[in-house]
Amino acid sequence: MTNHPKAAKTAVLHRMVMPEHTCPYGLKAKDLLERSGYAVEDHHLTTRAETDAFKAAHKVQTTPQVFIGGKRIGGYDDLRRFLGKTVADPKATSYRPVIALFTMTALMAMAASYAVTGSAFTLRAAEWFIGMSMVVLALLKLQNVETFATMFLNYDLLAKRWVPYSYIYPFAEGVAGVLMVAGALTWLSVPIALFIGTIGAVSVFKAVYVDKRELKCACVGGGGNVPLGFISLTENLMMIAMALWMALSAFGMAPHVAQGAA
């Protein structure tokens, strides 16, 4: 059997390249083909009329369109399937958003600790990690408070009884998180975190582990596909733990590293 070099493979790509718009999926398809060893015959659809005529001629509704060996493969997702690559399901549940979030906030906390103390692994870094996580989680919710509130009302016990709480929650979480990062106004941040964290933990536990409901978590905002469960419970337990820790520190019952200590 003769092994032909990959460069001998040819693909024909038709994609939109207009002065006001270059199709991103067309660029991704071209890049994927080239990385897969195909020589690409790149045909640009430079006007809306030309694009519509191409769609009508090939009886397709979208571009780009890829042809290999005279056979139409389809668009970008179809090309990925043809090449044996995975295609993400936009409706599939995933923990990736929260994994990315907690990874970045942990790195931020360690970086801040290193900048202040010269060590990334300090007690203050752990405190900052929780506070920064709360701030970023609040930020995600605040991107679209209406959507968050709608999802939150599916399971939060207090929000079901008093709807305005679903709008207050992300602001309260953000304020508590900022104050905890600053180590300021403990008398305010601790009660807020304890209140929303406790209600949240009880609500999630009841919905998931008692009622056995399968819901999406509102923890990363209303547009996420993170399943309600362990991650949601962890968010609330982190707030409770941080609030208790800061309360104990305020009364001198736990070690606390003051911000700005060398």
From TrEMBL:
The places in or outside the cell where this protein is found are: Membrane
User: Domain Glutaredoxin spans what residues?
Assistant: 21-73
One cellular component (GO) term of this entry: membrane
Record's protein name:
Methylamine utilization protein MauE
**BP GO terms, sorted:** methylamine metabolic process
Q: Which SUPFAM superfamilies has this protein been placed in?
A: Thioredoxin-like (SSF52833)
| Major subcellular site | membrane
Described by its record, this protein's role is as follows:
May be specifically involved in the processing, transport, and/or maturation of the MADH beta-subunit.
**Origin: domain of life:** Bacteria
The membrane-spanning stretches of this chain are 98-116, 128-155, 167-186, 192-209
Any one Pfam family match given in the protein's UniProt record, by short name: Glutaredoxin
Instruction: Please list the residue ranges annotated as the Methylamine utilisation protein MauE domain.
Output: 122-248
Q: Topology with regard to the membrane? A: Multi-pass membrane protein
- Pathway of this protein? One-carbon metabolism; methylamine degradation
Q: Which UniProt keywords apply?
A: Membrane, Transmembrane, Transmembrane helix
Record keyword Thylakoid present: no
